[in-house]
Amino acid sequence: MTVMQFNVLKMIVSDWYNENRCLTMLKVLFRDTVDIGKLAEITDTIDLLNELVKLGKMSAKDLTLLYDTIRITGHFSLQIKIKETFPLFPDIEEGIISTSFTPHRQKLLKLGKKLTLENVTRIDKLYNTPRKMYTDSWSMIIDLEDRLEISEENMTTFIKSLKLLKLHLALQVLTEVDNGEVSTSETPKSDKGYCGPADGMGESAMSSHQQQPPPARQLLLPQQLQQLQAQDAYNYLVWNQPIPDSSRSAVQGNRPMEGLRRPLPGYCGPADGIGKSAMSSHQQQTPPARQLLLPQQLQQLQAQILVYNYLAWNQPIPDWLRSAVQDNRLVQSLQRPSPDKIIKDYLTRQQKKWYQDVNRMTPAIWHKHYKVDIAEIFTELSLRKSKNNSSCTREKGEPTSLTEVLNIIESEGSCKVLITGKAGMGKTTLLKYITYKWATGDVHNAFAGKLLFLIKIGDIKAGADIVEIIMKNVNTNELLIKNNLPIKAVERFLYNHGDDIVILLDGYDELQSDAKDLINLFKGVELEKSTVVITSRPDNTENLVECCTLHIQVNGFSSRNIKEYINKYFCSTKKYELGKSLLKEFSFHLEDEWEWDGNHNVAFGLCSSPLLLLMICTIWEQKQHFPKDLSDLFTKLICCILSQYESKCNKPDIFPIERIPEQYKLAILLLGECMYEGLKENKLSIDKYVLSKMSKNLHSVELALKLGFVYEDTPFNPGDVREIYTPPHKLISEALAGFYLANQIEKEHLKGDEYEVIRCNKYLNMTRKFTIGFLDDKAGEMLKHWLVMPSQLYSVAQCFNYVKEENEKSVLRKLDENMSTKMKSYCEQMCETFRSVLDDDRSEHLLKLIKKCCVKYKNSLYKLEQKVVSLVDTSSKESLRKSCRRIVLTSVIEQITNDSEAGTQFAVFVLRCISNWKDESLNVLSAEIKYLQINYDCPSLTLHWGFNSSFLIHFLTHSNLSDLFVHDGLLTEDTLSVVIKELHKTNVKLTLKLLSISCTDLRNIDGALLGKLFEIGPALNRLNASNCRLSSDIVRAMITECSNNGCKQLCHLDISNNDLDDALLCDILKMYPALSILKVASCGLSKESLNNMVNEFPEIKLLELDFSRNCLGNLDGETFGTLMKKLPKLRFFGMAHCSISGSIVNEMMKECSTMNVVLKDNMLELDGNDLSDINGKSIAELVRVVHRYFSLHDYFLTADNLQQLFESVDINIKLNWKYLYMSKINLSCISGKTLSCLFNVSPDLIYIDLSNCSLSGSIVNEMMEECGRMNVVLKGKILRLEGNYLSDINGESLAEVMVNYLDRVITMHQKCLFYRPGVGSFIWRDYRLTADNLHKLVESVGENKTLSSNIVDVNLNRINLSSISGKTLACFLKIFPDISHIDMSHCSLSGSIVNEMKEECVRLNVVLKENVLKLKGNDLSDVDAISY
Predict the structure, then answer these.
(1) If pLDDT is split at 50, 70 and 90, which confidence band does 216 have?
(2) Structure-model confidence comparison of residues 357 and 1213, the more confident one
(3) Cβ–Cβ < 8 Å for 776, 806
(4) What would the pLDDT profile of 1301-1329 be if each residue is shown by its tens digit?
(5) 3-class SS at 287?
(6) What's the Cα-to-Cα distance from 447 to each of 117, 503, 755, rounded to whole Å?
(7) Distance between CA atoms of 1310 and 1308, rounded to whole angstroms?
(8) Cα–Cα distance list, 1384 to 552, 1315, 1387, 1394, 1417 (Å)
(9) If you count DSSP H runs as helices and E runs as strands, how many of each does the chain have, helices first?
(10) What is the DSSP letter of 200?
């Protein structure tokens, strides 16, 4: 290694440890090597490395110290970064550390990595008064070493401190010796990994622990615990005492026990050296000799007693003790992990084994056996993030990094992440990269400890839900059989442990039309606690954007990334001049980045894709020229890929496209045909088996896969044995499909039906564009098949835009030659229309006129709408006919521009214009629509303006409408009746799927007529007729009519707020077996409706049932439990405001438990019911099953109920609260310990509102103290405490309150989750705080520490600060450096206080921001001029 290479290596290592903030860790590591004074001065890792080189510890010829540093710090991923520059850098794995570092130094490194921030805080409290507020474990170790509190010669005191603080993991690190045994000089052997019985068994095996049981770590079944308690029999045997009958019966059948009870001759008494044993109480009276225990038997029994004591308290067994009883079957059975742990561990091993190779791929233009890490491709991609919340507008996206994205996902819990980007931008690469990091346990793994599934959405079959998909792709037979688990054990685990599951879904845009939409998974309706990451192209993702937690836009390479990549590429090929010429061609030499593309917008636009940029560099390397047209550019690309393949075969020829050798052309056409068939179904990858079925020439098949257009891909799912090949970019696939189609069209091999497929298929837009380009001046051969009727005009016009300008005349000539006389007549009339819209009287071809219209109105369709409306003339029949023709034909422009948002707006304005036309005018418009054969292209419409029945009939008849929403009161009973009758009479069949007519007065409508709606709309499966004053008779008549006509397709019915009877629900369920959502809120129903459902159906397939605001005051638990058993798929049951009491809920929960009915998380809605008499156990279950936001007010609960909750449930139970509202609940009598338990049992809690709850400062102090004791981290949780009397709060707790409240409230304000006036201002008066509280806060934090937060505004207005010192105010500003405004108006401040504050700010290097202070209303007459 040269000196320069060594310097580069040092830079890489330095940057790595600096980025990971590990300099202080390295200072601890090299404390024995580098002078302590020198270490204190070092502020950058590179300086430390240079010092080691200077000392001769490391050099270009000897990197042993670097290898050991990587091993001992555990930063093994650093070598991946190093190998990017130095591929031959050796693989470093965990192993023995050389003598570079002493055992003591290595232990300190392990200690620093084990200690959490909470551990460091506790040690700080013990050793320092006042606390030194260490930022991490490393700064603490350095300080303690400086003070000789820690040294190699004396660790005893520090170890005792760790015992006192019960930091067992840290203690275990320090008490280990090199051979894995425990140092007897520092701690007894039984103390290794100590979590169980105290030193020396003392009075009894666990007497010292019975006063304060440790937290449970593993679950023991009741029978296992009973066996443990019966192990007292072993104690009796050890001391040869008679075994009591209770203990004897408890261990009958225990073979080890029976063997040990065999009579042996003689008695030798207790073995020497036992000391105070587990049975010390028996030593006072020597027992009579009964049998002799051999020494090894006695030793084994003592070990077993220790093990049982550990297990009884659910503590981990030390390794030395575990090995002593490794052959004991009973001990082994008691240590058996829970079924859930068995399942999770098995699935984790299986998935990781499969995914460890998922990051390997072969770039298409490289050799098949040369594989690269996709992380290298993804690393430099440009990302933008935006946080989204359902209640308000989402943030504008901002640049981000992959590390930041993963950190956000990790911190959010059950995060729902949407990743969007154009084809080829790296979305799939990103998911594979994340998957690989998880499988290999990388240090940056965001999903450590969770179970990850990577699923390709395009492979999802019809009707399968997410759990079925997961189960299909994992092999569980071995797991179930070996562990004797129930058949559905894995499915049950997945449903019950969503918080342990991460689901990566790739390609939402590739979802098959008959497959189940995954939107409910993304919304949290299914597996609500799971983390879901879904990728999609940007089109049609509005629903996903609305419900995502985080939206990531993958933009591929930025302009600067492109420039950097081009430099690197040509440097690696040592073709520097070519690189410079390409940079100049793209105008990278210009300062203005907007000019970077050099008029090569087509080629430059492809460069954002990493793999396409590689191909662009290849084209330049071979041709030094870029065509302007996309198809010409890909022609060059195809030639370059073939040349690359030739060069691998030592045939350096480069051919033009027309001279491609026949064997290559056949292979490309075969590949193009296969890709064309796949693109029709939006599939990008190809199966080698499918490809081989398309040709009998196996040589062509193999050649097609070798040429370099595709690379062999790794299947996402284990067990998938297909040989899958994927192009590096979708454009490659579309270009080859276009090349194939152009060849087929030229040879006239395509059938007539296939032309219609090419025209209509929504996935073939770019394929059509490439086909036009490859056909060149023969493009008319394809377009002539479409210009046969006006309804196909938009397809022809759209593709004509792709024709090169020099080919337009020949293409138009071909179209005119093949156009029918009738079509020519149509075109002449349409030309007149478009000329009027363009105000252009020149005679031009229709397609040229349409092209002009598209250019003129592409980004301003509203102007086209204004023009069309302004030209409407109803003065005569002929002028009306022309106006109607304009209305119809201008919809062609909207379809061509493909601007869905603007197009919808245009359709609305035009429809509004004609919504009150009379029958005569609408008949003329209908006649024009039929004549031109062009319907309205408007799949969804909301009618929020007045209209008549004639308009509605006209529009429904001549549109492809799927969803129709009518605003309240705009539709009348008469209008609806006329519309239904007319459509039924004319035998019109609608494409309608959803109809919402809520708040329409239909009390007198004929129910049978309403039923004809489903005959008119055979696809209509969702009806919202809520608040329509319907009666049961009307609804029955409707469903009877549906029954008579066989219309049973309804799956979503909302008839809430209508007067119905209890028998109706069963009638509806019988009529519509596919019904999944039924809403009957506020319908005057009772428990009888539920009884009928229980009695008349063996099983009901409903997914959602809203029964809110009906009377269920007499509901019994048995009815509820039975109903839940008959609704196995139900995910939501609304019972809000149903007069349900707490005692009813108690009974409901009890019966469900008895019947083994498991209620799904968040499935019940029970707010508005008085549950004040509910018991604590039921509250715990209620928290789990009610819908997300939990407010005690909504259930009439009080502090007593909260207290009951924690008194009645196990300390280890975990509640799924996320948002908890307790505002205005009187908590004056509650303890801080109870509130801390609230945080401890709610790991997912991110928002808790305790405002106006009569809390005192002492309660908050106790809460903070208990949270610290239980290692509960409050940072990142929103804690609202305003309106409470916190004047007696201590400084440390106040600082915690301020940081957590303000930090998160400002964030929530920016993300718009919660809003209230004055958000972001910490108002002193809201907490009844005084100047004394300010002083205590500063005193407890100290002047040398700053608190990281987003505090922007502190309001001390009208707080008496006359006794405060200027130093205190300056320290306060130092502690909160991000404060932008502090209001101290009318605070009785004097000028001398302000003077002192100014002086102290200078001393503390606090720079006062402009306008930071507001001092109005204070007497500052004695203030210095400088201070003023």
Answers:
(1) very low
(2) 1213
(3) no
(4) 643 443 333 333 333 333 457 889 989 99
(5) coil
(6) 21, 11, 49
(7) 5
(8) 42, 25, 6, 11, 9
(9) 64, 29
(10) S
User: Within 1134-1231, where are the H helices?
Assistant: 1142-1154, 1176-1185, 1199-1208
CA dihedral 142, 143, 148, 149 (to 10 degrees): -110
CA-CA distance, 58 to 70, in Å (whole number)?
A: 14
Is the predicted pLDDT of residue 897 greater than 70, yes or no? no
Q: Which residues touch 1232 (CB under 8 Å, ≥6 apart)?
A: 1258, 1259, 1260, 1261, 1262, 1263, 1264, 1265, 1266
| DSSP per-residue letters across 732-783 | HHHHHHHHHHHHHHHTT-S-HHHHHHHHH-TT-HHHHHHHHHHHGGGTHHHH
Flag the least confident range among 272-276, 550-554, 591-595.
272-276
CA Rg, the chain, in Å? 38
Q: Which amino acid is at 432?
A: K
The DSSP call for residue 945 is S
Q: What gap in Å lies between CA 540 and CA 557, rounded to an integer?
A: 24
User: Which helix (H) or strand (E) covers residue 360, if one does?
Assistant: strand 360-361
Which distant-in-sequence residues (6+ apart) come within 8 Å of 41 by Cβ? none
**pLDDT of res. 396:** 46
* Distance (Å, whole) CA 82 – CA 64: 15
Map residue 535 onto helix, strand or coil: strand
Torsion of CA 1145, 1147, 1151, 1152, to 10 degrees: 10
CA distances (Å), origin 625, targets 75, 599, 629: 45, 13, 12
Q: Kindly report whether the global pTM for this prediction surpasses the value 0.70.
A: no
pLDDT tens profile 1090-1115: 999 999 988 898 999 999 999 999 99
Sign of CA dihedral 714, 716, 721, 725: negative
The answer to whether the peptide bond before residue 130 is cis (omega within 30 degrees of 0) is: yes
Which among 1413, 1423, 1316, 1315 is positioned nearest to 1355, based on CA atoms?
1413
Gap between the Cα atoms of 788 and 815, Å rounded? 10
> What token pair was written down for 408?
């956000």
- The C-alpha atoms of residue 595 and residue 450 are separated, in whole angstroms, by 47
In the DSSP assignment, the letter for residue 1196 is: T
Separation of alpha carbons 59 and 64, rounded Å: 9
Residue 1305 makes CB contacts below 8 A (sequence gap 6+) with 1278, 1280, 1314, 1319, 1320
Residue of 547, 538, 732, 759 lying closest to 635 (CA atoms): 732
The candidate with the shortest Cα–Cα distance to 103, out of 76, 148, 75, 72, is 72
**Amino acid at the residue 244:** P
